Amino acid sequence: MRRTKALPAIALVASASLVLGACGGGGGSNNADGGDATVADMATARGESADGYTAPDTKQSDQVVVSTDKPFTSYNNATEDANQSYNTFALTLVQPGAHLINGNNKVILNKDVMDSIEVTSKSPQVVTWKLKKGVTWSDGEAWDCDDFYMAWFTQSNTAKKADGSKYFKPAGTTGYDLMTGECKDDQTFVGTFSAPYPDYEDMFNTDVLPAHILEKQTGIADVTKLNKDAAAADIQKAADFWNEKWNGFTKELMPGAGTYVLTGFEPNQSVTLERNPKWIGKPGGPAKIILKAIPDPVAQAQALENGELAVNSFAQPDANAATKLKGLNAQGVTFGAGPGLSFEHLDLQMKNPVLAKEEIRKAFFMCVKRQDIIDKLISEVQSDAKPMGSLIFFPKDEGYKDNYADKAKGDPAAAKKILSDAGWTQGADGVFAKDGVRASFRISHTDIPRRKQTVELIQGQCKEAGIEVKDDTDPNFLDERVSAGDYDVALFAWSGSPFKGGKKSIYETGGGQNWQNLSVPKADEAMKKAVSQTSISDSLKNWAEADAALADSYGSLPLFQMPNMWAFKGLDRVYFQSYFGALWDANEWQTK
């Protein structure tokens, strides 16, 4: 998952790497500029058909400026250090994948770059990806099987060092670690799975990078010759480049193979996309798209009102910004909001000496008044928002069960009793202590206003329970500290695709995104079974077992499903897609 893919529609199942991220009710209805598309209609791309997506003819226009909450930081969003929603938002039209996901979370074959994806054998499971001939990167090199092979090899942990450590540092390995990849020819990649993997459509969607760039920069003649038996020096050279050299923006190292290509980058401020001159499909509408980071949501709304930009895309919903934007309907602003595939949560660092004590974790869960937080900070965006009861399922998913209602009642008196019964006593300052250890810890988060307000509310709620909560606001928390486990409690959102397989790397013991050092053997076993089932129904049963076991560990407290929220003016249609952001169909945008 990202810090911020489909089987049959019965399963909303997160990506091979979920992202730190972004994420319903309340939304616009008719297009304020007089168009005939409703906000709900905009969830479907114009190029969709029954058998996939092909970009349509689009009226050409000039520059479009779009705002979001945090900046683009890395061209390789598949590494554990870089992986976050804001990179995906910028790269969705630059690095094409096998599938698209529309605003209704429907997974669609990307026929602009793919001919087909088929299960060509069931025992063992073999999947064949057929790539469309003629697709190239913006530097003229082919977008072909080499790129798929590199995506598999770098994320599979197939090759390990003599001491057992890994060369590559992917955010997640789920699916790729079950597969052996092979290029049959330039347009055919074949994956043979050691165990059934029902979420194979979640692969090669956000992680296909230019293998020819890695080859040129490392001196490796053919990336498809890399395997577990290749020379250690060659694997290390490939890993050093893949892990580290695609951060930030270096134009010659970072071509595009989609409708757009990156052409400009202002660190911590903006990234610029322009039409890809080598793109073989229908050209995008806007000649240039500038994606600007504006951390203050009200400032985003003000910039839209002032005509400084055309689109607001809020990965972080904000009540004050929502109120302002709803009031701009007469000025031609369309406001939209809808349920997302992200959820806000609190991760507890299990190596922290205070939080390692189960009674502290239980008391902390009990004192947090989640509905109060929602009422004050989310209800203006989504009036019917409720506390999340799961780390694996969203409320409308098949298999959802509220595992936290009894654990997180928002009851300070019950929290105090938990600590008292465990031998903790309140000091003169009102804070519980035992054996010289105080019930005190910090909550770390980025400088998003809503998160600071969330911590302020929790501080008051838990003070009643004799727990001291300190605020640790750090603008770079998601970029630098969270993946190092440098926190007591981390407040952020996981954002994913509709698949659940990516949750495994977050919650399994030693998982690539398990930065909180959680270890729940019962959940490990259930997740291992979940990703190797042949039927969705059996897989969901295993995920439910894992979900219940994780809840009983008191390691992570889900707060709420985050609404997507966006607004625009002067364009015919914009929809914020939970995983890919507002630019998922920006190639189709037309000015009014």
What is the element layout, followed by pairings?
Elements (H helix, E strand, L loop, with lengths): L1 E2 L15 E2 L27 E2 L2 E2 L7 E8 L16 H7 L7 E3 L5 E3 L4 E9 L2 E7 L13 H12 L22 E7 L2 E6 L17 H8 L13 H13 L15 E7 L3 E6 L10 E8 L3 H9 L5 E4 L4 H8 L7 E15 L9 H10 L2 H8 L34 H10 L3 E2 L5 E3 L2 E2 L1 E6 L3 H15 L4 E6 L3 H5 L7 E7 L7 H5 L13 H10 L5 H18 L2 E13 L24
Parallel strand pairs: 1-2, 5-14, 5-15, 20-21, 20-22
Antiparallel strand pairs: 2-22, 3-4, 6-7, 8-9, 9-11, 10-11, 12-13, 13-14, 15-23, 16-22, 16-23, 17-18, 18-19
Protein name: ABC transporter family substrate-binding protein
Organism: Lentzea rhizosphaerae
Pfam family, one: SBP_bac_5
The portion of residues forming beta strands comes to 15-25%
Radius of gyration from CA coordinates: 23 Å
- Count of individual helical segments: 14
Question: What helical percentage do the residues reach?
Answer: 10-25%
Assembly classification: single chain
Distance between the amino and carboxyl termini: 36 Å
Strand-pairing-aware structural class? alpha+beta
Largest sheet: 12 strands, mixed
Unreliable residue stretches: 4-35
**Arithmetic mean pLDDT:** 92
What does it look like?
The chain has 592 residues and is of the alpha+beta class. It is 23% helix and 22% strand. It has helices at 85-91, 145-156, 211-218, 232-244, 297-305, 319-326, 358-367, 370-377, 412-421, 449-463, 477-481, 503-507, 521-530, 536-553; strands at residues 2-3, 19-20, 48-49, 52-53, 61-68, 99-101, 107-109, 114-122, 125-131, 179-185, 188-193, 260-266, 270-275, 286-293, 311-314, 334-348, 425-426, 432-434, 437-438, 440-445, 468-473, 489-495, 556-568. Strands 1, 2, 5, 12, 13, 14, 15, 16, 20, 21, 22 and 23 form a twelve-stranded mixed β-sheet that branches. The chain has a four-stranded antiparallel β-sheet with strand order 8-9-11-10, covered by helices on one side. A hairpin with a 2-residue loop joins strand 3 and strand 4. Helix 13 packs antiparallel against helix 14 (536-553).
